[in-house]
Amino acid sequence: MEIHRTPLVSPSLGTTRELVSYHYGPAHAARRIVIQSSVHADETPGMLVSWVLKRRLADLESRGLLRARVVVVPVANPIGLNQRIAGALIGRFETDSGQNFNRRFIDLAGRIGDGLEATLGHDEQRNGLLFRQAVHAALEEVKPRNELESLQLALHWLSADADIVLDLHCSLEGVLHLFTHADAWPAFEPLACYLGVGTSLLCEDSGGHSFDEAINLSWGALRSRFGDRFPIPASPLAACIELRGLYDVTHEFAERDADAILQFIALRGGIAGGVTPPPPLIRPPMPLSGSEQIDAPCAGVLVYRAPLGAWLKPGDAVADIVDPMTDQVTTLHTQIEGVLYTRRVTRYVHTGVTVVLMAGVTPRRTGPLLTA
Q1: Are 365 and 291 in contact (CB under 8 A)?
Q2: Which terminus of the chain has fewer Cβ atoms in its 10 Å neighbourhood, N or C?
Q3: CB 38 within 8 A of CB 76
Q4: Which residues contact 285 (CB under 8 A, 6 or more apart)?
Q5: Which domain CATH number covers 305?
Q6: This model's pTM is above 0.90
Q7: How far is the C-alpha of 42 from the C-alpha of 48, rounded, in Å?
Q8: Domain limits at 110?
Q9: Do 169 and 226 belong together in one domain?
Q10: What are the CA-CA distances from residue 303 to residues 295, 316, 354 (Å)?
Q11: Which tens digit of pLDDT belongs to each residue from 318-337?
Q12: Ramachandran class of 87: left when φ > 0, alpha when ψ lies in -120 to 50, beta otherwise
């Protein structure tokens, strides 16, 4: 195992932070896998899963069973971990700029496409090498202006050569679910089975340029541009895994999730030995554009009337908002048929905040598809 430390741009005199990554398996392995957790720093379940993975990977490495280079970044956002207001951790948004830590990652496709056209040929392996060299060259040219940009650049560098990238997050309260590009779903379906994912959400481009999409979209755009003229190797596979809710931090969950991820790595040829067949898929994937966001039309005490994971039909009651001063009760209903996959954790709501997210089978939304 190797430990790599990448210093970030210093935000102030006497202050420095670094991104720490742990590297297991053969340094020159043909397959490279990156697993990072808690880009939203207050989403802690992934940190515990990463801790379990580190121990398991160290054991596999010591026994000579790792066939892939596996990189684990257990704390992918040291900036957010140190943001506190009156003792409350603020890990989703950078307090200096207000930017979501998992938005606006580098758009590599816009930086490397034009320079590649004259170099591509009919050798697929060579074209893949040229793609990766162009990615490296583009990242070399990026000059981060602040600490946040240096963090995003460091995360991008770690995944520049990866075949598989798993970005571990969690919801406020939620069932275990997964986001990925529609083209990547066939490869990730076994992972969804191993994890016991309650719902998988697919899209081409959510509009937020989150980390996993920055990986998928750059290669996808290049394949769309050149694929009809030149043989292009398979794109790297990236997925965002939402490990239930903020408070679902237990040793039992972490052991189970780490085991599922290792089973998937073994299935992809990264671990020697036998492979356990994945269990059946709980539910077919749904389009992210088919989701419904239910917001609070008024303030009050939030009382849920439907449990997480419930399959609801149009008109079904989701929650009540109770005004204890006027005695008014406002009931929220879903407009679509689908599964309630995430909901708000605090039981008091202000007017306009999102209360529930539903996943539906029929595309219905356009424009930006992710919440803030």
Answers
A1: yes
A2: C
A3: yes
A4: 185, 189, 192, 199, 200, 201, 202
A5: 2.40.50.100
A6: yes
A7: 12
A8: 2-284
A9: yes
A10: 14, 15, 14
A11: 999 999 999 999 999 999 99
A12: left
